[in-house]
Design a protein that fits this description.
alpha+beta; 3-stranded antiparallel β-sheet; about 10% strand
Length: about 375
């Protein structure tokens, strides 16, 4: 037997592995304590045995930040997070954290070293970017604490840079009309119009099939997303249960998509192919998925032609939410349409719009309340 697990307390487990034979001929053993479930300990035991098989096992006392970060990526992130998240974390680890902190022994990583790194990084990178690096490093070190490598996460003892909240860009009704007019001759116009009419994300729009569009109830089912990873387009389940949702269509959108569907079916028949329920709503002439980058690039060109500034494709989603709020839609309805985790999150994201609505609300209240009476009787 190369390794074993035994329970120490209610929520802790001791791992034992045999790491080789010492000079005295006796088998060398390594012990670790893992806090959590037995499954967590089993996963850690598997990681340790795999590192022994690869010949890269390092005793905890000699573990460097580089070794721990890479072990965390392959042992935890790869099995518990999406591939897109793994790619993002790997880029941060390899391009920033390892070059700056990788040479330090994990047990010698102190808060002062982290604070110094954040200060230096902020000279070249934005506070938001460095703050994101801090979050990734903190997750990796939290894992080190759980594995018993560290007594406490040093990231908890530093003050990361505070990113400034970006001013949200939303289109006014006049700007939106201008944008759609300029985009009317683009093959991506149906995507743009649907985006601002529903608030769907780019990944959700590009994954829609005709079976997801219900013209009888005038609604759209969001049941998957489209992503491009390392040049390959993939369809995936939504990240959260809130993201999987049914969104109502405006009558104008329903009429538009019905006509658009008829045009697509006519095109397919002309090309000698029968339309199918699983056909993508938004696709190229061959019916294949649209590249997300190509869509965003074309949108940027149209924005420039329209004479607008600092407008991204994602801002169509913000515009949908802001127009709904300004027209008196309830925050809960908007939150559900956007697929947010809570109404509180929606209110926080669009707080600046809500603040701007206070004057209008006061005018409505002023029209309902009776005029105050002046007099001396209430002063007595």
């Amino acid at each position: 037997m190369r390794g074993s697990i035994r329970q120490k307390t209610k929520n802790s487990w001791q791992i034992q592995i045999y790491t080789g034979v010492g000079p005295d001929g006796k088998r060398k053993r390594h012990f670790e304590t893992v806090r959590g479930r037995k499954g967590d300990a089993q996963m850690r035991l598997t990681e340790l045995l795999a590192s022994l098989d690869r010949g890269v096992y390092t005793p905890p006392g000699k573990l460097t930040v580089t070794e721990h970060l890479r072990n965390w990526l392959t042992g935890y992130v790869k099995t518990n997070c999406s591939e897109r998240t793994l790619d993002g974390y790997e880029a941060i680890v390899e391009n920033h954290l390892i070059p700056a902190l990788g040479h330090i022994l994990l047990k010698h990583l102190i808060p002062q070293a982290l604070q110094a790194y954040y200060g230096q990084a902020c000279e070249k990178l934005s506070a938001r970017t460095v703050h994101h690096q801090h979050r990734v490093l903190s997750e990796a070190l939290k894992y080190a604490v759980k594995q018993g490598y560290l007594g406490r996460n040093p990231c908890e003892l530093v003050d990361p840079p505070k990113p400034q909240k970006k001013a949200m860009r939303t289109l006014t009704p006049d700007e939106l009309e201008t944008l759609l007019e300029v985009a009317s001759d683009s093959r991506f116009y149906p995507v743009f119009y649907t985006a601002v009419s529903t608030g769907l994300r780019r990944a959700e729009l590009l994954a829609l099939r005709w079976r997801d569009v219900d013209f009888d109830s005038e609604s759209i089912l969001v049941s998957r997303t489209l992503h491009k990873r390392r040049g390959v387009i993939e369809f995936k389940e939504p990240k959260t249960e809130h993201s999987r949702r049914r969104v109502s269509m405006t009558p104008k959108l329903a009429a538009f998509l019905k006509e658009y569907k008829a045009e697509r079916e006519s095109l397919f028949l002309h090309l000698g192919r029968l339309p199918r329920p699983d056909d993508l709503v938004f696709a190229n002439v061959e019916g294949k998925p649209i590249d997300p980058g190509v869509l965003s690039h074309n949108f940027a060109r149209i924005v420039k032609r329209a004479g607008l500034e600092n407008v991204r494709f994602h801002d169509l989603r913000h515009t949908f939410a802001s127009l709904m709020l300004l027209r008196g839609a309830k925050p809960k309805v908007i939150s559900e349409a956007l697929g947010h985790s809570s109404v509180a999150f929606t209110m926080d994201v669009y707080s600046h719009i809500i603040e701007g609505m206070q004057q209008d609300a006061m005018m409505l209240l002023d029209g309902v309340l009776p005029k105050a009476k002046n007099g001396v009787s209430w002063k007595k």
